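Let's do one together. I've listed all components of the complex below, 798 residues spread over two lines.
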Amino acid sequence: MRTLVLMAAMLAGCTRPSSVPPAGGDGQEVRVIGVPASVGSAPMNVRTVVAAEGGESVYVTGPLAAEIRALSGARVEVRGRRAADRTLVASDYDVLSVNGRPVFMGVVERAPDGALQLRTRDGGLVRLQGAPAAFRPGMKVWVQGPGSVTVQTYGVVRN
Amino acid sequence: MRRYLCSVLLLAAAAAACSDGPTNSAPKVAAVALSQKAITLTVGQEVTLTASVRGPNQENVPGVAVQWESLNSAVATVTQAGVVRGVALGTAQIVARAENRADTATVTVTSELTRPFNVNSNEGCSNPIFKNARQVASSQRALIFEDVTNPAGGFTAAEYQEIATAFDNLIWPTVTRNFGEPADIDGNGKVIILYTRAVNELTPANSTSVFGGFYYGRDLFPRVANGRLGACPASNEAEMFYLLAPDPNGEVNNNKRSKETVRRSTQGTVAHELQHLINSSRRIFVQMTNTNEETWLNEGLSHIAEELVFHAAAGTGPRMNLGESDIRASQQRIDAFNSYSGSNFGRFRTYLENPAPESPIQVDDDLPTRGSAWNFLRYSADRKGGEERDLWFRLVNSTTRGLTNYEAVFGVDAVEWLRDWTVAVYADDAVGGVEPRFMITSWNFRSIYPLITTPARYPLKTDTLLAATPRTVTVSAGSAAYLRFAVPAGGTGDVRTGLVNTTVAGACTPVSLPVGGVFQGTAASAQALCVGEGEYTLMPFFGSRSGNASTQMTVVATGVTVPVGPPTPSLSPSQPLFNRTGTGLNEELLQSAAGIEARLRARERRELAALTPGGFRANASAAADPAAPEVRISLMRTK
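Okay, and this is what the predicted structure of the assembly comes out as:
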């Protein structure tokens, strides 16, 4: 086992680091485009990372980290403040695509006629057809589908 | 773990300084830093210190000799390799010198080794909650500590020593042979196993599940930044994990834990946590990656570790298609199954009971995800063939993670193998004539599950397609639904899979299959299929790589009838193989599964509500759309 530590020391002395997105100093406002994932062993060590396009992974913290983790495998843009240790304190994010296609994302509401609709971040409303039974008002979700909008594929970001 | 990235950055910074090219003069030694500043030993115990020699910019200075000296060799000695040995009770200073710089560690030699551990399970590097623990057993690879505040009625010294010996003889060699050895940051060559009431306290009163133990990555980091790694002030600076303590009187939250229960239920936990320790430490200290493994794969590998220890304990191996008679062959195998495999079967059962909304690659770490991740990895290793140990080692010793890591090691399209695995979950040991890629050759699940499940059955949830009755299913990424139907003699069944609440128009594609034959197509190519006489299972699979995505589709069939029964004769047990409570599958697992079952039933009720007539209808332009392009259809003839 001692060998491992020695190897680590050797590697530490001889490996050039890759570029680190997002560039900038601590506290600087930055944005990262990439794919989120949940890493670490459960339950104590689970964290959210975003594998940034053209760079390395960035840990995401803050109240939005759980939502971003729920977007595992999607393509997202995360904005926030760079912390000291390659950590991004997320203040906002967008889902750019899931499975290569754009999505509608917003909060589920119930329309006056009882149907479910999606309130997007810009205040727009998307009427949902074929909404899954799991959808409840107040949920934050993304949806894909034809028409405006038949819910074919979806993900729950926040219950 | 937050400090983990900091550490990597620091490492990277040091590396950058080194790799900018050779310099004409060797850096001057500015400091020497020991790996530990305070050590407690018993007489005869050894620990290895390491000394980092640094230049003026904190860079490592290689090739500088370090001289070691004990200032009180009557109490502790040190070799020129930094190995410190306790000789007699007292205190000694150990000095490491390089050129004109030095660092000192204080060694305390005691008769009974007691040391504090931070047991805070909520916060990693801050707000430590210290508990004193005494060393109660030692072996070549394990140091066992007992929290001095543990409830009464814990293990005896002899029992602790038995646990340490079992760790040396069974768990350590099995797990490290497959995954590699962990780091050794505390220089003792051992893993610390701490039995602490802090683990018991994680399970509230009247809970339907129980915490068996945990590993905490913080403990791999130094309390003070050492130039290579960032600081984690609350770290225990040890390769260690935390286990449930016996509590026969229910002192903690009224939860009674007998010694027998704790011993049995934590044996698999030890193998499980050891894989996590190896996985993290090799990524940090060997592979120099900047993130941990993805949670689903990390947990799946730990459940594989449990299974590997089962084989070592049972004298069996993978790809033996173990069934009832194989396990019943000896008490040794039954005991090994109950200690190391019962939990895997229990977790996988929760997936089988409702597979469509669950998946091996989901972001959560609930029991269905863990159980299916284990089973998918098991399927993958069985299908890949060759030396299985090489697969596990490469998965752990990787610089990538998740599906990317999986695909690099197995050399396959992960989505394609996930799809085939969902077929194997149904077909293996149930349908004759299937291709090997639809088999899981290590286990005969259809033989074993009826023996450990009440009512006795293989618990895979299937639904029946009824003629002209649209069926809407929701399927998670990496999983499938199972829809069964029959076509009577002389008839033709027409099965159409399309967008939710729509009916696919146009002619159907004729498909002729022998029993065991499987047709596979995409959402576009398989949206309308015609089949002749026989019984079939339609498996719509969602091939998205986005772990929390789900898709909806509606299946409409005509010319079909209800299948008459299971795909093969019922495998009801002649007599129970394992007790269903007590010494069988451990009762905590069953309790835990019961809680999960309740949750799944609630979810199922919500899904069934989707079938209620009167919902929104798709507009006409959407009627001909196929399901999402990631949907892949498998259709198997089962009779």
